[in-house]
Amino acid sequence: MTPTMTCALKLETHRGDAALALIERPDFRHAWRSLHQSCPWSTAFQASPFADTWYRSYRAQFAPVVVAGWADATLTGLVLLAISHDGTRLCHVGAQHAEYQVWLSTDDRFVGAALDALAAEFPGRRLQLLFVPPGVPFTPPDRWRSRCFRRPIPAPFLATHPADTVRESMRKKANKSKLNRLTRLGKITFEHVADDAAFAALLDQIAPLYDLRQGAAHAALPFREDPLKKSFYLALQRETDLLHVTAMRVDDELVAAHIGVRSRNTVLVGMPAQSPRYARHSAGKLLFFELALLLEQEGVDALDLTPGGEYKDRFATRFDEASTLTVVFSRAGAWRHRQQRRLIDAAKRRGVSTDSVKRTLRTVRHTVSHLRPATLPLQVARRLKRAVWDDVELRIYRFPSGASMTHPGTVPVARDRFADLACYAPAERWQPTVDAFLQSATERLENGEHCYTHVENGVLAHYGWLSDRQESTFMDEVHQSWTLPPGAAVAYGFYTHPRFRGRGMYAASLGRMIRDAKAIPGLGEIYICVRADNKPSRRVIEKLGFVYDRSFHERRRFRSVRRWSTGAGESDGSRDAEGPPSRA
Fold this sequence. Notes:
Helix content is 36%, strand content 30%. The chain has three domains: 3-152, Aminopeptidase, CATH 3.40.630; 161-300, Aminopeptidase (3-Layer(aba) Sandwich); 382-583, Gcn5-related N-acetyltransferase (GNAT) (Aminopeptidase). The longest helix is centred in the middle third of the chain and has 23 residues, at 196-218. The strands form four sheets. Strands 14, 15, 16, 17, 20, 21, 22, 23, 24 and 25 form a ten-stranded mixed β-sheet that branches. Strands 6-13-7-12-11-10-9-8 form an eight-stranded mixed β-sheet, sandwiched between helices. The protein has 584 residues and is of the alpha+beta class.
């Protein structure tokens, strides 16, 4: 028992303007700093520089909530929270920006008393701390035992003082090969970014890369969905010394970057970003290696990889145990939470991950939201008819080498602007969900393909793809593969949002692809496929100067399926693509 625990514990709860007035008082800030220094599990996210900056940056969305415990004149406990202005969300200061979320305390009585106060102030709410840092002792009082749910999770660390394991990894043949391949693309530079203006410019480049990655993995677009996020990070850089920012470039192109947070004598992994163009070279991995060597020079003990994300485990030299803590203030809410956890745990034991369940639910919601009951019978009838009786012709057009383009579109089209992809939203039932679209887009970019986009009013109005030097392709429409001539490029995957059709975006996009492809040395002809019954697209293609090359056919008659191809000038059915008719 500490000396302060022999004194009565006095608890204060402040919210809104009263909480702001409290944390701005010089005597309170001195007591806060002393408590932070004496609490063994404190992190940068419970210190005043981070809390002050976040409360100011997010005052339009959240009001501060401060619970303080005093023993005589000594501050022995503190928890810094926020409540959304609509009253629906109670969270740790910093919300998702705080990698570690916890209370500060030197008095074992504080946590139970603070939970009592919060339950009285916010009945029916819950508080989730994600993640509680390693080394935090927590045994809830009996009255709270059934309403506190703590789950352990590994916390990986990469030792950087010394960084011997990193040097050993960099000497491995595979990693040396990746670095050599990257070097052949241009001059590699690695920099520690400390200048405010340089950081602001870098953040503009990091944001779309981070959104693309998070959108593909979790259907979340942190910067696009949170308009205050960028200004918060700019304020952290400008007003505190918390951020540790690094970037890797090839010539002038950003290939990987990281925004971390200094906490005690570690740097926490916060916002890693990697260009999908350089994923095959593991640019993000190479940046982490260089970061570890830099931290060694700076005398930093470790790179705290933070919980969550299997890729982090590959870098770890040791593991501690962090945890998640969910506190449900009502007993009925705690019962519901317990049942939900049982269902989730049962699914995991059967190999069903939480992420897969979430993806399935997103797909179902998307499909249901686009259902039109009045047209459903007709759609079902058409689908049944195609399953038993259908004829599909896929026409192949090529743009001859040396040909001049006629009637190019005038709509501005961007190439490989990753921020545009984050503006995607499915407009029709058959389209993929946001995460599925971004995952597919990321894979295409990693394979060296190029996206062409046009955005209006924050909506991805048009997109298309160009694959240069493609050797073969499989055409889903007719279930046939085709080996292309050497050095061929393929334009495909075009879509224009229904609200923006008829304005020449398809022609403009295809026209820019032709110009870009013609500028690539050694590239052959450009090919594009279109269904024969898609006459509007055929008119655009032919108007631009493409010439018909061949067709691939599929004919379905009940269980009999025949597939064949025809060249320009040949009669229908002259060449079977797969020998005799197949039986489905």
